[in-house]
Amino acid sequence: MMATLRANQWWCLSLVFFLVLLAPGAARGQQSPPESNPNATFEQLSAQAASAREAGRVNDAIRFYQRALKLQPDWAEGWWYVGTLNYDADHYAEAIPALQSLVALSPQMGPALAFLGLSEFETKDYKKSLVHLQQAHQQGYGDDAELEKVATYHLTLLYNRNGEFEKTVDLLGPGIRRGRPPDEVKVVLGMALLRIPLLASEVDPGKDALIHAAGEAAALLDGGNFAAAADALRQLVTEYPKTPYLHHAYASALEGAGKIEEALREFVEETRVSPRSALPYMHMASSNLQLHHAKEALPSARKAVLLAPRSSTSHEVLARTLKGLGEVQEAAKERAVAKKLESNAAEVDLTQRDFYARSRPGESASPQTAGGVTDFEDSFEALGQKAAAAQAAGQMDTTISYYQRALALRPEWEEGWRNLGTLCYASARYADAAIALKNAAAINGRNGNVWALLGLSEFETKDYKNSLIHLERGRDLGFAGNAAAVQVARYHLAILLNRNGEFDRATELLTPESGSGPLEEEVKFALGIALLRIPQLPDELDHANESLVRLAGETAALLSESKYDKAFSKFEQLVKMNSRTPYLHYAYGSALASASRYDEAEEQLSEETKITPGSALPYLRRSTIALQLRNADRARQLAQRAVELAPKSAEGHYLLGRSWLELGKIEDSLKELETARNLAPNSPEVRFALARSYSKAGRPDAAEQERAAFERLNAMVQSQRSRTGSQAYGAIQSQNGIRAADGEKPAQP
Questions:
Q1: For the chain, how many structural domains are there in total?
Q2: Is the pLDDT of residue 524 over 80?
């Protein structure tokens, strides 16, 4: 087997520098001070304010607006711009007074209430933030769809924090049913499903994998896809059998699918996991009432009231149960109690909060000594100096000890936690590194390097699910460091994506790294795994397949450089080595198609359908080729087969919609393209095709909306590619950028 990274020493040294603070960027040019004219009129000041704002001179604009407002304090537009300009500049405390003045003038102005609530959220005034965001939701946001998304998201965060999880689901539910929610919304849904009374930023990063998986299941459940939700939750309760509220969620999915008897068994299981929760007892009573078993429902309903006597819902369930038993007077009494308790605040489960909360910096610090260091009387400053001296002398354990002692004195020292995490990682103390880096992230969650090194630490402890999440978060925030360290982070993220079956995304990350750097050979090997679509880490691969994968990686590297003749020669070798290898013919056919050798490509892709008959991938690629050759009917047939195999494939519905469009079947085209948009809302290609289809259907307003969405999304894609330096790997990737749930089963050669 190939040598592991741990056998190489170079990377350890490079990573010591991974979290070094970057020097601050060059100071921005100072904005010119506003013209000082103490006798300026309101009209002059308001005109100067608008001019400065339009020129991007934010500070000048705010000063002019403030001076104008002293002359005319009931000027709503002025308060709006002072508030929103400060908000956009992250000056939330300064935004609040201006927005309060605006709301006093216009108490029903939804956007002003939203910005006020968002500013209060950022200053951690959560009680006022909740009030104002609720008012904004009631009043509406005008035409500002983006403000509505941001405000709604923050409102659900606060509902979760208050333990009002049902309100979170009610608020997000309509959007989920319209399409696939973004990842941050899934996190909120996952927290609601697990009933975690915290903000997302307050959760221990070690629980991220569980919450993300719960969020995926919650999106299915709240979207009404009960069968798929039940499958996902069945897997989750297998992996986390003692996690509170998972059995409850699984039971809810079964109930939604009409499997009430099975649901009852899961509710009973939840009572064992969460014996002090009234929730499963309420649902057991409700389920029995659905089965017209009021007598069996009564013990559960009474138990719910016993556990939650101040809950309106528990008394309402008991009232329905008593009514079902014919005890009308008792039912009326319970309903009256329920009505009286409706205004009660939700009770926060402190056990849940404590279990999921990230530790405060310093709580997990270990002031152990090492290297003979025993003097605990040093000041924070002295310990910092000694740590620097010990590090310069190469005394790693001693340096770590000094950092631990300094952090015990000053637990909010972000740089100390980052440096401690880096040193522990470089010393192969990965569990200690993860603790230190979680503390650093708790203080500043916007440092991409911290999340990247946390993900690398978790990788070494085989916490692969959290490692993937945190490496992706680091990538999104931006890897910064020397080239070798960045390559290490990208490589580990890519091989975890391979393990997760996200081969195209892995390829995008690996392709720019394939031609140079200390990990060149490892990167090529990982490219081979991606080309053959093997959902394993390199170290998990069967030794018998190493030569095949290595040759596949060399082929993939040649394709990334557009060296097709050499790549095709390698493909011939691969096919001779093992012509029955899953996805080999698919990769070869895709590469041939990229070189416009369509007949040969069709031959290879047709062969793939025999080897992996359950995969939609070769049909998708053949449909794309048929469209390129302007054979729309053939493209339709192939796309329909792909959709049959993978009903949730955004690419399949997109290709089918395009085919119908070319055939002049506009209504059929719209149906498929709208489905593709719901499955892949961020695909520029889908939006472009929809704009064409709406135009053909005589719906110019809808077409214009889709064109605007296309331009916005396309600009985002280009910006991301420019920022990450990754290029589309056209030879073996989806040509449409919308690859989703294609239905293929992971296979091994």
A1: 3
A2: yes
